[in-house]
User: What shape does this take?
Amino acid sequence: MSDEPILATHGLTRRFGGLVAVNNVDFDVTPGEIHAILGPNGAGKSTLINLLSGEISPSEGQVLFHGKPIQGKSVRQIARMGIGRSHQKTNIFPRLNCLQNCELAGRIHMGGVFGSWRSRQRAQKVSERALDVLETCHLAHRAYTPAADMSYGEQRQLQIAMVLATAPSLMLLDEPMAGMGREETVQVTELLESLTDRYTLVLIEHDMDSVFRLADRITVMVDGCVLESGPTDQIRASEKVRDVYLGRHHEEATA
Ligand SMILES: Nc1ncnc2c1ncn2[C@@H]1O[C@H](COP(=O)(O)OP(=O)(O)OP(=O)(O)O)[C@@H](O)[C@H]1O
Ligand SMILES: [Mg+2]
Assistant: This one.
């Protein structure tokens, strides 16, 4: 596989009034890797993802996907280019069943009207893919269960399935394990591990065990800036990271 970045940012900056949420960030993702973003609350992780998916525009700097700027493209256009994302808060249609949720995600991504013969064929493909991703996410037995009737952990898994349903080449996952118990966290970690040979992932996650197990590289953000970025072993051994992030995280966790 080529080591040319699939995605890169240069001097990426986003201000909200006087606050610099993302400050001059250079970040890249190479094909096939899991690149985790760590950082305390308010570090700018979600804002970075929002910039990568085009949900917000940079104040300065740029995002390149396969070497081309995404600036000026709509969220839907960027999704069609192959960037799929999940949100920190669960974002599903509670009354629809799992299959319908995945079909809807796939359809939105493909766009178009589903009336003609060709579009019926496309709809068929979307349905097949939806079943396929439910299988991948261990939710096939829940295909016809309304999302609202599932456990929180299953809903978070469905969220991942919905991203997969859009057939992304790059997945941006914002805290997929947020609010999960230990057992569910391990389950989702295993699910993400099973995706590693087929997908490139940017993963925001607070669960250290999962991050250290899954990530090839880690970028640590503090106050909008990159504190350190490198292979997982480097970050695990970094005193700077331990002092500034792990120390603070530990204090938060034990406060
Ligand atoms: N739309 C917005 N308007 C104003 N301020 C914002 C907005 N979005 C984010 N911020 C601020 O930017 C900073 C970074 O927020 P962000 O959500 O990116 O942090 P985070 O690292 O994802 O934190 P968490 O771990 O709590 O999810 C915070 O101070 C936040 O209050
Ligand atoms: Mg966040």
